[in-house]
Amino acid sequence: MLLGQSATGKSTILNVLTEVLSDVPGRLTYRIVKLNPKAFTEMEMYGVKSEISDDWIPGVFSTLWQKCNSRQSKFNIWLTNDGPVDTIWIESLNTVLDDNKILTLANGERIPMTDQVKMVF
């Protein structure tokens, strides 16, 4: 977790650290995927069941989570939630942040976190 006022270098620290780690021989390249959770409602972030068609509409975070945690990924990914931590969206990450490391969606889908993915707040 990086904490600090605006314009104090949090993003620069993250960028420099990933560049340095990517230069270590024998390691996968590091990538930063940024998301501002405050820009979405909880339904837009995680997904929702359509009232009209009864289909599951995936959310922005759940889609990113699935792509980042693909077993075919050739990168170490830091999934960065850039913005203030809010109980509205952080509550749904309980199963990701505990020992299970699994995103559990309202449709029953469970997407495990791979070793190449880290969460940054």
Describe this protein with a few key phrases.
alpha/beta, 29% helix, 25% strand, 5 helices, 121 residues, three-stranded parallel β-sheet, two-stranded antiparallel ribbon, Rossmann fold
Q: How many structural domains are formed by the residues?
A: 1
Helix content class: 25-40%
Number of helices: 5
What structural class do the secondary elements suggest?
alpha/beta
Q: What is the number of beta strands?
A: 7
Topology order in helix (H) and strand (E) letters: HEHEEHEHHEEE
The CATH class: Alpha Beta
Strand share of the residues? 15-25%
Sheet with the most strands: spatial strand order: 1-4-7
CATH homologous superfamily heading = P-loop containing nucleotide triphosphate hydrolases
CATH architecture: 3-Layer(aba) Sandwich
Distance between the termini: 5 Å
